[in-house]
Here is the input.
Amino acid sequence: MASGHTPDIDAYFRRIGYSGGREPTLGTLNGILAAHICAIPFENVSVILGEPVLLEAGAVERKLVGSRRGGYCFEQNGHLLAVLSRLGFDAAPLSARVRFQQPRALVTPRTHLFLRVTIGGEPWMADVGVGGLSPGQALRMGAGAEQETPWETRRLVGENGRWYHQVLFGGEWADVTEYTGEEMPAIDREIGNWWTSTSPQSKFRQSLSVAIAGAGGERRSLFNREFTVRRRGAAAERRILSSHGELVGVLAESFGIEVPPGATLRAPNLAWD
Here is the structure.
């Protein structure tokens, strides 16, 4: 995973449609995060197709930027780490457990990567790889205060020696991730990525999961056959896709993902008659 690869900042900014400043400031960071989640989809299509998920820096850049594909946290936040470091930000990779819709009594695998970005001595959470819940702006890593984003309200709370990134849905707070502040070096990311992309117990081997954000607080997501469009302050719009052809069309039209000709997306929770 370690390499001397230097990210192509201009190509990345063209990919995400970002034309703002490049100084290592909070404004620059928020502009990059918002542009990223609106341009690069979270997706596990490669896992479903049985393709290897490579974390070597050049391979990730070729996939996300050159091939205009998406990926999951190890790819997306890994590339973001390289970009921010190149721009002069003080950024570090941290490990977490995904907790959304999971009871706290259940110990989920520590297979999530996010970034701590320190600006003017203050730490901020940056995460473009937590699916349809990627915040789209930096979150102040302090306790309790509600933080508005264009998509949802967030907060970070500390309990029992752990921290929880939470989102406000329907007037109730829901856990998104759990973390301790422990860094996640390259070897840990390699091991986590291997389990995530190859273990039959991994949710990414069991189900198709795709998400992207849009302007005005919009979220589009695809979970197996269920396609959902959610706008802030409005009821979610859902429909069940009836065929593989319809699925391929939605992936292309709503997420910019082209499935290779002749390939069929199949998983234990995504079966076709």
